[in-house]
Write a structure and sequence with these properties.
The chain is α/β, with parallel strands linked by helices. The protein is 39% helix and 16% strand.
């Protein structure tokens, strides 16, 4: 049984230090070991808590965000929820640009934490490049109008340091036994930061990116509509670094949902569609590497954020 942590004086001190769990039932007997970083253990149930805290604290330190200031961001939901937590604790008003394309639970969570939301209508409830660009422009206008600090997650490199720390956790938890790291690409910050951190320790660690097959732009395909929350912007994001990646895997929305359901029913892990995509790709890598190797991937967030979305699918 996991030991209880000592008393902490601040909710933000609970970010990071998440468990690493070996999958038992969905993995093939002949494949490599697959370990999942359980990022749903962060305060808002998402790995984005790491980046939100890093972006806000870096802006505080260099004066971009001053006492009494406000914050603005565009988001598919998880980053917005994490920023809502950080800003509520630190006392910054937060303005979020999001869309009805994303899980309603996330939007409600942001509002409950005190964020002000602007909802951009989607075309048929799908994530597209045009929707992303419209949200970005709305956030830019709000930032200029209100004089807010715009975290601008696609272009903000401050988040990468948070994932360097995550990579160090993985390295220590595995006693340095990591052969591959598999992760979906949203802003690109998590893949980039973890790849850099793990490569510093072991230059030959295989790095595998994952994207929606309906919008496989990193693989050279056309931009399209998909329903894997938080990933697949529909264009090549600024934090994407192809030199860090050994290969790209794709997963459809249907495949990601099916794997997320398997994880819940067979492993007791209740994650979202991006987690399903991660594990699906990790299984492919594990089969290739074979017994004796270790593949690490990420449970990005909790499936509690997707109840209505899954029920409607």
């Amino acid at each position: 049984m996991r030991q209880a942590a000592k008393v902490t004086g601040h909710i933000l001190e609970c970010i990071g230090g998440t468990p690493l769990l070996a999958l038992r039932r969905v993995v093939p007997r002949s494949g490599a070991r697959i370990l999942v970083k359980i990022e749903s253990e962060n305060p808002t149930g998402s790995m984005k808590d790491r980046m939100a805290l890093a972006m806000i604290e870096a802006a505080e330190e260099d004066g971009r965000l001053k006492p009494g200031g406000s914050v603005v961001e565009y988001t598919g939901g998880s980053t917005g929820v994490s920023l809502s937590l950080v800003c509520s604790v630190k006392g910054y008003p937060l303005h979020i640009v999001t869309s009805d394309a994303f899980a309603r639970e996330k939007l409600q969570h942001m509002e409950y934490l005190g964020a002000t939301l602007k909802i951009v209508p989607s075309a048929g409830g799908g994530m597209t490049a045009q929707l992303t660009r419209t949200m970005i422009e709305e956030a830019r206008v709000i930032s200029e109008t209100l004089g807010s600090f715009w975290t601008d997650q696609f272009n903000n490199n401050d988040q990468v340091a948070a994932y360097h720390a995550m990579a160090e956790e993985i390295w220590k938890q595995t006693d340095g036994k990591v052969d591959a790291f598999v992760q979906c690409v949203g802003t690109g910050g998590s893949l980039r930061g973890n790849a850099q951190g793990l490569r510093r320790r072991h230059p030959k660690v295989r790095i595998v990116a994952v994207e929606p097959s309906e919008s496989a732009v990193l693989s050279g395909g056309p931009s399209g509509s998909h329903k894997i929350d938080g990933v697949g912007a529909g264009f090549v994001v600024p934090n994407w670094d192809p030199d860090l990646v050994d290969r790209i895997e794709t997963a459809s929305t249907e495949e990601a949902r099916a794997m997320a359901a398997r994880l819940a029913r067979e492993e007791g892990l209740f994650g979202g569609t991006s987690t399903g995509a991660n594990v699906l790709a990790a299984l492919r890598v594990a089969e290739e590497l074979g017994a004796g190797a270790t593949v690490v991937t990420v449970m990005c967030d909790t499936g509690m954020k997707y109840f209505r979305q899954n029920a409607a699918s």
